[in-house]
Amino acid sequence: MLLVLAGWLLLALTTTTIGWTAWRGLTARYPTAPALPFELLSLSGIALLLAVLAPLSLVLPIGPAVQAALGFGVAALLLGQRRALVAAAGHWKTTVTWASAAWWAGAALLGLLGLNLLLRDQAGSRNPDAQLYYLQTLQWITDYPAVPGLGNLHGRLAFNSHLFLVTALFRLPTPTGNYYPLPPYLATLLAVAAVRGLVRGLTGPARSRTGWALAGLVLFFVFLYLFQTWLASPAPDYVLVVWLCLLLLFYSRFFGPYPIRGRADRPVLLLLVLLSCVAVTIKLSALPILLLPVHALWVAGRRGDTGSLRRWVGPAALAGLLLLPWVGRNLVLSGYPVYPLVGLPGLPVDWKMPAALVQTEQRLIINMARQMAPADWYGPVAAHWQQWLPAWWQQQISQPAVALPLLLAAIAPLVVGWRIWRRPALGQTAASPGWLSAWLVAVAGSAFWLLLAPDYRFGLGFLLLMAGGPWFSLPASRRVIWLMLVLGAAGALHLLREPVYGLRHPIPGAVSAVVWPVLPPLPPTVIQRLPDGQLVHVAQAQGACGETALPCTHAIEPGLERRGESLGQGFRIRPTAQPSH
């Protein structure tokens, strides 16, 4: 538990320092640029680290040398800006109303939310994908640069989420394995945003008291309910939910007004490009979030930004710097620019994965997301919605935390249309940053999710904002906000029942668990030999490799071999061999 907390504090210091330094440097020429809250500074720091690690990972492992370089770099930033940091800390103290009951109530609520996250992270993960391939992916990233044809060893190892790069960077060793604090740390940012909204709604002017003061808290509790058993896993799925929620809240002006009028607000445009493109590199299901910076650039053009072409050059260049290394890493791992889209042409290289293997992974993702019967998971994807939608809907309504957002999202367009009909001026706000434009992007993201792979893990960030946007924008009195704060505290206490019960009835090893997080044991494997003599661990328990020594896979494909003498040179499948399904 102590290591979990230490990991979060280390992440907060490191990522906020990087984000604050970058924002300070970017806005030096724009004195009217707004200040960013802690959540966005930390998120920006993570995004910038990812942008640096992505090309670096093509030639270097994210090992101890990179960790040491990061440590020295952050120390240099802190020492070189110590006066500015002291001034920033002094300014923050002046903004805190220490005598305010709302501030102390918010601090108490944040403590309860943080304790929920801490105890669930400490308890360990029940996410099967962590044992299946997350932990193996992180080992490969730590020990080797991007490995050509790694997907030939195990198709899931070709899934290229850049989140794994930063996750591997912040690994912490324990006696029973490596602990990865980054994914659960991101959940704490959503908790901070939840409390920030409530406190600002209670202490701010009356015009700021809308349902958006409650939005962060609602999003946090839905997130916690659905992913509470996954928090200890290095899963990109729930990280993307947090990332999209924070980004859409930002564009909805949850954190305050961020006008986009012209050159003076160029830093906000670049921030939107950075966070949106990084979301896509975390998981491809975030692709519609790119509409946010596109909308912002369109708004800036309508409001007189100079040079229509020049306005797009900087953001387009930044997007290219973020997305091209992601495509490059895809090409190295699988031979395809966007894995597992088998329809896109790949490279004519010997490590290119056979099309049948790629198609198998693509079908598995879509058919499982559509709740098809297990016998149909590897079959062709249903061409008509009538073939899968009824069974999918029956499965969703059996989960109240998923069914309610789905139902609210279904009626949200009617609510928005009715409100625009009652007040036509509301429709004009879509031409500027705000809840309506963010809601339209969430609608596009939800449609993209439903049509392609409607597993709630892939689109919940869009779905929650689509479902809640029309209601969050309604007025909310101070009493309502206080009531939600009290209900939030009660809900947090209620959710602490199981973790506290576990503390009262300790299991063997509970004393060491005070220091170390609970990590999964190594799953059973057997050793097999490739034709070239390489020994490979083959999983026995449902394909789970966990942190078994490299290389490990769920099954050896016929014709699999190394491309050279070392594992770092990659894997290929001989063209004469027919891969299994």
UniProtKB/TrEMBL annotation:
Residues covered by the DUF8201 domain: 1-464
Ranges annotated as spanning the membrane: 43-62, 69-89, 101-119, 180-199, 211-232, 238-256, 268-292, 312-332, 402-421, 433-451, 458-474, 480-496
Keyword tags: Membrane, Transmembrane, Transmembrane helix
The keyword Cytoplasm is assigned to this record: no
Listed Pfam families: DUF8201
Name by which UniProt lists this protein: DUF8201 domain-containing protein
Species this chain originates from: Hymenobacter amundsenii
